[in-house]
Write a structure and sequence with these properties.
The protein is an alpha+beta fold. The chain is built from ten helices and twelve strands. The strands form two sheets. Strands 4-3-2-6-5-1-11-12 form an eight-stranded mixed beta sheet.
Length: about 300
């Protein structure tokens, strides 16, 4: 008998999230946004829709919310520009699309999907990705809309710290969603503004298939957030799926083990995973992670701190 259960898991980044560090209004605003993203994705899945549509819908909500480092309110480069990265992947045929360094698209996750469905490529970057966005009718957004005063303040604060500031102020505000639909298919999507003060066209793990984003119906779907250079080196998203598919490692154990290996390398962050059988797990090595999950029986969890 086909398992008709659907699963949706989302994240809004990992880092030093503790009640002492996060103001009450920020806590409430982030939880509200996570709830709205859950609603958007859950509506698709509850109606029998595709996991791919669900993860795009959920991530679009988070890209529009300034509590997170993606889309509007993204972290700024050293030059004060919002350069956005995103990826999306479906687990049936391993089709994927990604963009890096885009500067004028309201929803980079939708642009990544357009790359997947309307081009022969997987990853487009910079001016070419911006041109592709315009040519394919994606909704545009100005830098004035994307860039918020608080992000400019954070950039100036970082610059004041000098050369070592970049390492001190790593922010993991990436957003993502993973889902398993009633047809047994999985999908993953990730979107980010990268890290504050990034230079020289730096690209992290989020738009790299197999590092920050991966989906395979034989194993599950993964979206990551964290210190991207380490997630790239460990091939985190694919590694989790490979351990599940090839070695039969339980989903939670695979996620925990790979995150431990990232930590051993010197990195930190978190992952969310939707299993091929409908399981929903997360694993993180930071104090907290903006996260939420939902299922068909009305179950719903929204959390920020490590002890929730």
């Amino acid at each position: 008998m086909t398992n008709r259960a659907w699963t949706l898991v989302i994240h809004g980044g990992a880092g030093m999230m503790t009640p002492a560090r996060i103001a009450a209004e920020t806590d409430a605003g982030a939880r509200d946004a996570l709830g709205r993203a859950l609603d958007a994705g859950s509506a698709v899945l509850a109606a029998g829709g595709a996991a791919l549509d669900a993860v795009e819908a959920a991530v679009c909500v988070l890209e529009d919310d300034p509590h997170f480092n993606a889309g509007r309110g993204a972290a700024l480069t050293h030059e004060g520009v919002a350069e956005l990265d995103a990826a999306i992947m479906e687990g049936t045929g391993l089709d994927a699309g990604a963009v890096a360094g885009v500067t004028a698209t309201r929803h980079p996750v939708s642009l990544a999907r357009a790359v997947m469905e309307q081009s022969r490529h997987v990853l487009l970057g910079g001016e070419g990705a911006d041109l592709f966005s315009r040519e394919h009718g994606l909704e545009q957004a100005t830098q004035d809309w994307l860039v918020l005063p608080e992000r400019r303040r954070q950039l100036e604060e970082l610059k004041a710290l000098g050369p070592g500031g970049f390492d001190v102020d790593m922010k993991y505000g990436t957003v993502g969603a993973v889902a398993r639909d009633v047809h047994g298919h999985v999908a993953a999507a990730t979107s980010t503004g990268g890290v504050t003060g990034k230079r020289w066209g730096r690209i992290g793990d989020s738009p790299l298939i197999g590092a920050g984003t991966y989906a395979d119906d034989r194993a599950g779907a993964v979206s990551a957030t964290g210190s991207g250079e380490y997630f790239i080196r460990a091939g985190v998203a694919h590694e989790i799926c490979a351990r599940v598919r090839l070695a039969g490692v339980p989903l939670q154990a695979a996620a925990d083990a790979v995150m431990a290996e990232v930590m051993a390398l010197g990195g930190k962050g978190g992952v969310i995973v939707a299993g091929a059988g409908g399981e929903a797990v997360w694993s993180f090595t930071t104090a907290g992670m903006f996260r939420a999950k939902a299922g068909p029986a009305g179950e719903r969890t929204i959390a920020i701190y490590g002890d929730e």
